[in-house]
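Protocol step 4 of 6: record predicted structures for both targets in the notebook before any analysis. Target 1:
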Amino acid sequence: MKKVYIFLAEGFETIEALAPVDVLRRGGIDVVTVSITDSETVASSHKVLVKADTTFAKANLSDGDAIILPGGFPGYANLGKSAEVGQTIKNYYNSGKLVAAICGAPTVLKINEIGEGKLITCHSSVVADMVNYNYTGTATATDGNLITADGAGHSIVFGCEILRYLTNDETVTSVRGKMELK
């Protein structure tokens, strides 16, 4: 079974984290939410309290197939400030594992010099920060082992693209059908 870690920082965008959790679990992926704080309870940007499965300090992240970085402010800024998050996503990316980021979270890639020159998309508010990337302006962009998405409104589509990368078109079609996504 494929395994995905989703990093939750204080101020993450609720739907950008939880929609991929839902989609991926429906598709048979083992998803583990990881608080990058000392507490398993993390507050989203809209003050929704989410109890993560574990904390960064307790997690053994070596067995994953992908890492997802939700956006939301100040969530993506908090992800970008974490040296441990940076080193982990560099290790994943450089070993060919999937790194996925949505909304403002592609800036975490920029901060850590991950995937420069690749096709990306992101929230319109951070496009100017994404120098040395090829901004597509599309809802999602996939380039090698990097998937990005533009924002909250495309969180389910983002989850489906990650599921497609980790499984196949048939699984995505099945999950979309069960969710009434035409």
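Target 2:
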Amino acid sequence: MVGKKDKKAVLTGMLTAIGLVSALSLHLCSRMESKLAEGAQVIRNEWGAGDYKIRLLAQAGEWRREIALSVGERQYTFEEKEKLLKELLASLPDLVKGRNQDLNHVTTDLDLITSVSGYPFWLSWESENDKRIEPNGRVKREEILKGGEWVSLRVLIRDREQEISGNYELRAFLLPEILTEEDLFFQQLEERLIREEKDSSSGPVDLPQSMDGKEIRWKEEKSEYSVFVFLLFMAGAVLVRWGVDRDHKKSIQKRNKQLLAEYAGFVNMLRLYLIAGLTVKKAFIRIANDYASQKMSLGKKYLHQEIETLCWQLENGMSEEQAYQEWGKRCGETRYRRLSFLLGVHLKQGNRQLLSLLAQESEAAQEDRRNFARKAGEEAGTKLLIPMIMMLAVVMMLVLLPAYLGFGTV
């Protein structure tokens, strides 16, 4: 089992390694993506990639200064655009054919692109027959005659400045859908089932037992959710178990906090009863009786419930020393274990020394109680820190937003 120091060392080493790798990767990426060429040139982004800002360090002798430069994307002249348009129109059939051999043999969907890398144009498409070729390039070849069918595609090409804009036409020849023998068989079977269902609208549907010399066996396909339901319940069981464990831990923490908070008062009360002349056994019985009479108003008190159990054990013949030891174990906290040991020892040494030890224990318990209250206050302050920061952020936004938007200017 990994110790606490070893675990810290492992986590620290992992975080350090991740940090070094991340820093090195960022450094290499920044070097690879440098926009400054060797010949003191700043490289522009291609058309459509957008503008960017670069920080340059200028050195002139002993003088050094950082300069921020905004670099716009590449712009084309009118003559360059005309030349690029001719190149685009020449290569457009190959760009939109997709996985087809060419536009004269269309058997799958087309790739109706809206832009081409390296060309400063936008393209928008319109089909002559949307039932055959949709605007997104999807091709529907159902019910096309054996000879095939031509469909015209119109494309509008324009640039950002609207200096060049024009409509152009491409023609695609759609080949009929080629069905295998299996596809054709099941297509005919489906059509036959549809006819049977319509013909027997008032009774059961008779499924064909054979067709084209092939025997047909039928089986109902049912949705199987058993595995999903099992996994769902397994996940629920895990969540329930996690929730029960979480609630159990919370209840234990609540119990321990309450026991620690009541320890100082309990030790003082026990000491006062002993000073008044009661034995330890009678003092416990007296405290249990006081709690029983005020149980409705005091609510659930874990310490007094353990004291009631202790009194019940004493009444049923358990020895005082064993009863005190059992009581300390049930309370669980170190303070109660030590007190149960002191109560067991007093049976042999007498009440006088016990009173002295209880006085010391009372002072130590009071100090623990003050530390406990201080710690609880710090935890409450920490929980309030996030809402306070959020409120501060809202106030700062309310103050700075009008100034940022220019409100109140003359």
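Step 5 preliminary note on target 2. The chain has a mean pLDDT of 77. The radius of gyration is 43 Å.
Proceed to step 6 after PI sign-off.
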